[in-house]
Amino acid sequence: MLRQTWSLSFVEPEAEHEWLARTVTGLQRGLNLGSSAVAALLVLSSLRDLWLEWEGWEGLMMVRMGIIAPLCLGPWLVARTRFGQRHLRDIVLLSLCAMSLMLCAVVVWTNTIPIEQKPVVSILFIPIFAVGSLLFPLGFAKRLIYVSTSVVAFWVAYGSVGTSLLQTAVMLWTAGAIGGTILVATYHLELQARQAWMARRALEAARLARQQLLSNVLPEPIVDRLLRGEAPIADRYEQVYVLFVDVVGFTALARTMDPGMLVDRLDELFSDFDEQVRLHGFTKVKTIGDAYMAVGGLPWESSGDRAVAGVSLAWTLVELARRDHALDVRAGMHCGPAVAGVVGKERFLYDFWGDTVNVASRLESSATAGRVQLSEPMMRELGGEVALEERGLVELKGVGRLRTFWLMGMPGSMATPSVTALISARNGPSGHIHEGLGKGTGLLERPANRIER
To answer: Do 196 and 266 fall into the same domain?
Structure first.
């Protein structure tokens, strides 16, 4: 939003700072172009005077080399310094105003220029300040100072050359009209440029906000594919690690707690879960009520042992909920192939489907409070690097009887490779663990259970 003043500056200081930083490039470009043109004119005119050696050329050469050259080329040199970069607009404005005033002084108070040529030289003020006003994006306020200084300098210079009253009046009116036209035109040009820039800035902010919103519900690579127009998005993964975590007793809690407090408590819990998922290199998929789902082993995740990272994450979430939120949660984890994709047109997410997801969900629902239940494939993936306790055969709703294991600690804390070795030694020819194995060994301390959610 622009202030309704002659300065055209933005109300927001940050927006004004960005605009000024953006116009520095244009100012530097104009300075390079103007300095190059002046340098070329100085060289050509000096060569001409040296060749012709007309009367008074020495004085004019001194004006060129002593006044015009420093005022034109000085800002270009200073702009290469750190000080010049910070104050480039002020330096250019000072140089342009000084040039107009010095030219006026040369015309009025010196005899360097022949009297008959003074009217012609004075008229050169008009194209000089016109080009300077349009070439350098100083901003309207500084441009107003420069144009006003140049017009006044021209009036003083032309009024002193001895032309007729009519000629003087016409030229003074012409210079004023040209200056006023330049100011009006540049005012509206800058106004339109600022408004167009603000519109682009708003569009970019909206685009970034939309992308950020998508990034909050979808993985970044999926957001990029959506923004490129890819549809449908469907992927198949041969090996992913699916983790479900659920709050125990949430239904009873929801009946007794104020809705606002309940939502705040879940928000705090799941926000902490999000942070841990990120730290462990997993990807959050979704929350379903009081249930939380995360997946590991996706292409954009960090490399490393995803199975170990997964059980470390599961243990951390259970302990975090108990320690920091006074809540009991249960978790289940399974690994295997899965299909993922984005479906629907509204409120979509990058969801996962398949037996791997179903088994992980049933492992969570059949777990007990404060514990993490793992499948046999997860146990094999861990390779004895994690302390496990075999639970036995458990009836999972919609899945059947599966052998499961309790996670007993963080990876590396008290690994029991004997569990894996013993189970592998008792595998049948098919590679699967038989139901009768484990009796009397102390590994099966609980009978097979049929637990339904």
So the answer is: no
